[in-house]
Amino acid sequence: MIGRCVGALAASLCLAMSGQAQAQDSPPENDVVVVGDRLEEMVRSFVGEVAVAPGAERQMARWDGRICPLVAGLPARQMQYVADRIAQRAHQVGIRTDGPGCKANILIFVTPDASRLATGIVFVPNNS
Question: What is the pLDDT of residues 51-72, one digit of tens each?
Answer without folding.
Answer: 655 665 666 666 667 888 999 9
